[in-house]
Amino acid sequence: MDIMSYIVSEGLILIPVLYLIGMLLKSTPRVSDWLIPYILGVLGIVGAVALLGISANSIIQGILIAGAAVYTNQTIKQTVNKDNEAKAE
Question: Taking the model in full, what pTM does it have?
Fold first, then answer.
């Protein structure tokens, strides 16, 4: 299943934006790590509503967009960790 086939093309720009916001939040000492996905979820919904208008579809799109941003972050993080572990051996 390809999550990108469910996200409307207008919302794709929000994925890197949310990814960068997540990186900024990660470097902020006052924001706990567990809180970042929730903040990105809210921002994803707000961004999707701003782009697509107020509807149930916008809310779903915002959740999918935030999920894609968090998934991207975790994929990059796990790939880097795997590379570091391979170099340590």
Answer: 0.84
